[in-house]
Each structure stands twice: as C-alpha cells, then as structure tokens.
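It would be a great kindness if you could assist me with a short task in structural biology. Thank you for your consideration; the sequence and its tokens are set out here.
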Amino acid sequence: MWQTVGQDHLLRQLSGSLQAGRLGHAYLLAGPPHVGKMTLALDLAAAVNCAGANDYSSLPDGEAGPCWQCDPCSRVRRGVHADLSVLTVGGDSRVQTRISIEQIRDAENFLSVTPVEGGWKVIVIDGAETLSAGQGESANALLKTLEEPPERVLLLLLTTEEQAILPTIRSRCRLLALKPMPGDALAEYLVSRRGAAPERALRLARLARGCPGWAISALADSAVLEARAAELDRIIDPEAAALDQRFAYANTLAGGFSRDRESVRQTLYLWQGWWRDVLLVKEGAPGHVQNADRRGELEAMAQGVASEDVVEFLKRIQATLAALDANANPRLALESMMLGAPAS
C-alpha cells in the first residue's frame, strides 16, 4: 500500500511500470516543500525491494506497490535497509549548503557493490538542485552513473526547484511532478487517516497550502504552529520595520542558512504567504487568505500599505529564494530583500 497521498496520477503511472517491469533507472521528483517527495521516494525504494516484488505482474491493474508489511519494507521504513542510501545537503557531517562531490563518489562506490539483500540498490538525493552549485562538480560526477547505470539500480533525485537542475541531469531522468493536494482532500485525509478533529483539519489544510507533510507535522507537534505564530508576530511588530531591525534579522537568517537551509526557505515562504494575504485583503478577496486566523491583523496592515509596494516585495521574496538556490551570498540576498519590505 502506497504511503504517498494526493498523487494518484503518479501512483497509477508507477504501479503500471512496476507491473510491466519497465521502471526507469532514474526519476526526478519535483514539487514544493512537504508535498511528499521523500515519502514517494521511500515508497519506491520499498516497492522495488518488497518481498512480493516478483509477483507484481500477476496483480490486477493498479495494485502493484509496496506492502509495508514484509521485512524489506520494514527496513526501508526504519532507514536500515542495506541497499538504500539517502544523501542530504550537509550529510557528510560538514557544514555544507550543497550535495558534495565526496557524497556522490561515496554513492558511486555504494552502487558498485552487489545488492546485499538481493534486490535493488536505491540512492535518494534530497536537494538535487544543489548539485549544480559552485562549478557543478557533483552534478558532473553523477552524469556517468545516469548515462550508464548498473543493473537493478534506482536513482531518485528530489528537488523543490526543477529549473535549477542542470539540463544534462534533467534529460536523463523521468520527471515525477508532485502537485499540492486540494484543501478539502487534505482535510479529509487528516480526519480519516490521522484522527484530526474536522475544524482543526480544515485549519491545518488551509495553512499547509496542499502540502500534507507540513499538516501532519503541525498536527503531531504543537511547536510547529507555535513557531509559525512567533514568526508572524515578528512580521507584524511595528518595531521590526525599522531598517536596523530588518538588517539584524537578515543577518540572523543568513547565519542559520548554512546550518539549516530548508528552515530559512520555510521562513521566506511564510513571509510570502503573509504578504500575499495582505494583498488579497487589500484587493477585496479576504475569503482566499491562508492566514485566516489573523484576519484582523491582515486588515489593519492592508490599510497602511500600497498594493504596488506589496507586489514588489512579493517579487523580491521570490527573487531571494531563487538567489539562495543559486548559492548566492545569503546575507547580501536577505538584506536586499529586507530593504524592500513595505512600511505599514
């Protein structure tokens, strides 16, 4: 049973490939943060190593997939399967903002050894857009494996920025584009599969903007919503609008970027969502805001800013996200963004 939710269009495709024995050797899983890329990657790792994998061809159409009950599936779930390796940014224990060439070389060595458990070797590269950072040495090192993959090897590249992947890499992978879930479908999933109260499920589904991973984390850990509330308080605080305070905060974010790249990205997404809501309220569409629980504060802020200033700042946030993905200097990129914050 697939653990991935909200991606039925992809699960049908992959189930058919498994049944026909025509699974590709490399896939690019692209989509926004927390939409389910890692869940789908682990689903695939389990599917090719599942104890029942040899019987997929005998199953009814659309039913091929991991059972999550057998020993190989259980080891994938626990992250201890001998033939699965997950590469992450900074995963070689040093402070890094990209997948390093050393990690790729270690992965190549891993793939060169016969599968220990007799199934498939699976490499998951989380943050594949960083392969092209610097001179792109890690991307070039990966190309040979993509061009001439060993037998029974599956490469899964995960990215939030498909266009940041080098064309030479993209062209050698099959694309799996993960889409945000509709809000009502996500709310129903949280109620039926995660035991959430209907009202809480609706609120989390709205805040998650179709990304089940965030909603599940927020449901399980109240600290997720507490951190969100603290960041929104910072955005709203009039004292934080002073130029020296903006620069100090930009430096704080930049300092954390090397330690936790994704956390900084999530902060910028929160800023983006807030100012988008301000614009919606100002333009007379409050029913579509993400932060509905802050309706009064949104209305107050909308009264003190011009629509064109908000639009310009939203563009700055998007440009900053792109610059950080391109390995720009975090401090300079974030300071430049803060210079354009509307003064309410």
